[in-house]
Specification:
By secondary structure, the protein is an alpha+beta fold. The chain has 18 helices and 40 strands. This is Glycoside hydrolase family 92 protein.
Amino acid sequence: MRKLLLFAFLLCQFPGFSQKPKYDLVRWVNPIIGTHKMGHTYPGATAPFGMVQLSPDTDTIPYEVNGGYNKDVYKYCAGYQYDDPTIVGFSHTHFSGTGHSDLGDFLLMPTTGKLQLNPGTEAKPESGYRSKFSHNNERAEPAYYSVQLDDHNIRAELTATNRVGMHQYTFPKSDEAHIILDLMHGIYNYDDKNAWTFLRIENDTLITGYRQTNGWARTRTVYFAMSFSKPFTQYGNKDYSKAQVYRGFWRKFDQTKNFPEMAGKQLRAYFDFKTTEGEKIKVKFALSPVSTEGALANMRAEIPHWDFDRVKDESQAKWNQELGKVRASLPTKDDYINFYTALYHTFLGPTTYMDVNGQYRGLDQNNHQAKDFTNYSTFSLWDTYRALHPWFNVVQPKRNADMVESMLAHYDQSVHNMLPVWSHHANENWCMIGYHSVSVISDAIMKGTYTGDANRALDACVATARQGYYDGLNFYMQLGYVPEDKNGSSVSKTLEYAYDDWCIAQIAQKLGRQDIYQEFSKRAQNWKNVYDKSIGYMRPKLSNGTFKKEFDVLSTHNQGFIEGNAWNYSLYVPQAPAEMIQTMGGNAKFVPHLDSLFTMHLPDEFFKDTEDITREGIIGNYVHGNEPAHHVAYLYNWTDQPWKTQERVRMILKKQYQAAPDGLGGNDDCGQMSAWYLFSSLGFYPVAPGSEQYSLGSPAVKDATIQLENGKTFQIEAKNQSEKNVYVQKVELNGKTLTQPVLNHSDLVKGGKLTFYMSGKPKK
């Protein structure tokens, strides 16, 4: 029954299927994909790389319960869960696909009837302002979302430009119509997360203010300007803060109703209207990292009118322009939906983080002016260095160069003299491991995408890699590995540091800086220090030089790894696959070992307590739902059995990506999971960003054309393509047969044609 309902939903979303779409690529994108279970995507309205992500939130799960972490909150990293029957409201900032969270700023909710400022509960939505809804009355497209709020008989529609969200609420006839602005609401929320909130009623249609929070980003300030299309009749607020000892002389006023300033830690405001049947009230809500003046300027620049459909059409035209960078012909309707939804997901972030005049808040909490670049935020680098930023080097090189420039601005503003690790909204949150900005920077320099001061960039990479007090780096530099008894997840850190060091060495070699090249080439060999040849796996080593005795190669807990086990992480030497394979016994031993990764059974006990992985994200013991093994299927290309890369890649594409709400096998992680899909569907993948080489696989497209920014095109064609014909018999680049399963980036950007000849039998 569920599959029938889903099929009906998809037919409704994507009418008029034709075998090869031309220009309206928006129709193939289904933002609902990934909103169920572990995908952690949001379905709401946003522009490409937009600063506003205007989306529904379906519950108010707190981060903390009884002084401890509330595991249920994990489902709400994007604010929305497909299974939920109610909507709390529509907030303006969201992450896409993350495994931790923040944001959910400035929630609006239209209501009718008696004013209620409490959101209520899922079990009793009538006890608050939330509303029941049905997926039958919900629609999600790029830059557009709509839903019927059943309890209030209101149709809510959302669209967005880069910095401004636009709401359109169709009300019934009512003398008690309200729009609630909840400044307490947030994602991964807790009582003390709000440091302060402030509102000014500028006139009967315009409100300005800001919100300061202490969460994942511990010092975050977001400014806003909100404009109504119709004057409100009255307004007010309720402050849910604990009573303050000192209230000053503000106590002489009744600040709860029709008082033009509101300030406090826990505010909910309301604005009342009288509506006729079918009347539309529109709201423009602009954000700024700098000031309310900046928010107003953003609003005036991006939406100077009240035409909701015009905003939607213009934003969707921008999406069509971005999606048109890759024109693919695919075998089935579901393939079109999966492909263009993945492409959409890769263009959601990193997000713009500056006003229309180029001003932005920096890591030092001062205001800065971006000169000749767009400043970006939301760098989930442990995930996105692997495929998302390399994907940008193909289809968004100018944006990726600006992202590198944004990282270097972060470095300039950092008191730690470090590039970003995981940063958003003028904050470093230090999430995950490694210093993978250097991978992004190296890849951009080596592929010619970043044309700024490469020596300046290299200096920033080196300073980051030498910052000893960062996450075991002192031990790593002294011992050649991170010791598990001194610093946890030690093997993962050692392996990832070694790869990052190799990236630094590549830049140094290109720039002729031999001292740096020698230092970091040597450091890049440190992966060997945690390989235990007696068991054939990477293994945690202690500070006395011995390997940890109690050790389980399948467990993900307290074994020296993060988001992975020894099986997966032992294959993480992307900078030197051939040397790794030789170290592990050569083809004769390595190939059966790699085979077993995909075919063995991983008992539930080894991942049942892992928050972000369920059985759907696992094939054998290959964990596609987490990133450390994303390159692993391509390792057969360094053995004498490369056809196994072809069959594994096509298997993963089929099993881990579905045109359904639960169609992602794990967190999309700011587009990394989707970037893997796109590269692999086109037939090549960046195993080691920082190298200009892509490893060839098995394309799932019939053909595709990439529109390069230099005006040229690169075409991929798969002759004799079918679901069964997953094996490659021959590959030609511009008519010349390739002798190795490798494509060079320098050949790709020249334009041309890559032709795969497919078959149902492997070429041995």
